[in-house]
């Protein structure tokens, strides 16, 4: 194809290029999830007292280091995460778009019958079931206040009143349906964790495992905390990985084929 035809080829190839890029992104996500599944399957579960430096898999109970309060429900916990989405309607589909997200960054302990270890959730995946959810309108009114509609839970409204900056973010979507999710880890909750154990700088405990911190390692390190059993984690993530990988490769192949066909037609 002559170089003079390249400008004309760009608009023609754009849709298929987006398809190709989306496929590669989906395949990349699937491959990343599959690598995590293999790490979970290949890493034996350690008792906390016998955990050593490196990739570690442990199971136990959460123990608070600093007692936190979940922002919406006010429950005492070791970790929390809050997210809010609004419903975006278009001609072709309706989509939920996240506009607010906040997580605690405090470290907490995991404990089993042999000891305890400090855990840092920052930068890792905390995959736990929601403890509270609410959906509705911010004001509870529609059509200039003439019609009553479902309003967000009072706990959400009280949370917003106590946090004017966050309330302003919610008010930007006051005319739409909003849903709020709150997740938290309470003291004593059973957890699974996979991460990198490294010595805590300056720690001087006589017990070796209390001198270690479980966190997301450098580079492509892993850090996963979940309230599900290991078998369920492996099953659900393997399914997600295979679907994303397969669909992504098909999309990428279709996109690449479309690009090649577009270029060949323009070259004629």
Strand content: 25-35%
Secondary-structure element series: HEEEEEEEEEEEHHEEEEH
* Rg value: 24 Å
Number of domains: 1
Give the mean pLDDT.
Answer: 88
Q: Which structural traits does this protein have?
A:
about 270 residues; alpha+beta; five-stranded mixed barrel; 15 strands; about 35% helix; about 30% strand; flat
Report on the structure:
The protein is α+β, with helices and mostly antiparallel strands and 268 residues long. It has one domain. Helix content is 34%, strand content 31%. It has 4 helices and 15 strands. The strands form 4 sheets. Strands 1-6-7-14-13 form a 5-stranded mixed beta barrel. A 4-stranded antiparallel beta sheet has the order 5-4-12-9, covered by helices on one side. The longest helix has 38 residues. The model has no long low-confidence stretch (mean pLDDT 88).
Give a quick rundown of the structure.
It is built from four helices and 15 strands. The chain is of the alpha+beta class and 268 residues long.
Topology:
Blueprint lengths: L5 H37 L11 E10 L4 E2 L6 E2 L1 E11 L4 E10 L4 E5 L2 E5 L5 E3 L4 E5 L4 E2 L4 E2 L5 H8 L2 H8 L6 E8 L4 E10 L12 E4 L8 E3 L3 H38 L1
Parallel strand pairs: 7-14, 8-15
Antiparallel strand pairs: 1-6, 1-13, 2-3, 4-5, 4-12, 6-7, 9-12, 10-11, 13-14, 13-15
